[in-house]
Amino acid sequence: MFDLPTRRQSARVRLIRWLRQRHFGHLQNSVWIHPEPVAQLREALKEWANDAETMTVMEASCAPGYSNAAIVVGAWDFKKINRAYEEYLLLAAKASQLTRGAASRALAQWLRQERAAWLNAVDLDPLLPQALLPPGYLGQRAAAARQDALATLRERLGQE
């Protein structure tokens, strides 16, 4: 949790970028969460270590009667994450359409698109532990589809 004064706007922007890059969930304006302890947190936030009015870092769990699932849904946009994985799944399905004699240009284009779609989806995903994944989460299905698509290509390329 943080409450950086407006005169520290550049520090606030740096901190928010740092949190997003590390897939922290955004619960409220200045309340961010992560499912696991973050080793780099102490070093990255050391300038505020003795300033509890500006920054407080806590390890916590839900009190009885409160739901981890509700916190997960509130902190990360799983509709957006799943849309990215849906786009990936559509692209992964096209791997089976690449024929043995496919032009190298078509294969190279698919590989570029595949990598970009995968990185886009994973960049949005906080990669939560299994116990915290919301119903309908597509990340695991997309990961399996990726393994299948790349195995299919390896097999086809090995036959040429």
Keywords for this entry:
160 residues; mainly alpha; 2 domains; two-stranded antiparallel ribbon; 6 helices; elongated
What class would the helix/strand composition place it in? mainly alpha
User: Residue share in helices?
Assistant: 40-55%
Radius of gyration, in Å, reads 21 Å
Instruction: Give the overall form.
Output: elongated
- What does the main sheet amount to? 2 strands, antiparallel
**Arithmetic mean of pLDDT:** 86
Whole-number tally of structural domains = 2
Number of helices: 6
Uncertain parts: none
Query: Strand share of the residues?
Result: under 5%
List how many beta strands DSSP finds.
2
Order of helices and strands: HEEHHHHH
Task: Describe the overall structure.
- The chain is mainly α and 160 residues long.
- It has 2 domains: 55 residues, no CATH class; 83 residues.
- Helices cover 52% and strands 4% of the residues.
- The chain has 6 helices and 2 strands.
- Strands 1-2 form a two-stranded antiparallel ribbon.
- Strand 1 and strand 2 form a beta hairpin.
- Helix 4 packs antiparallel against helix 5 and helix 4 packs parallel to helix 6.
- It is elongated and about 65 Å long.
- 14% of the residues are buried.
- The mean pLDDT is 86.
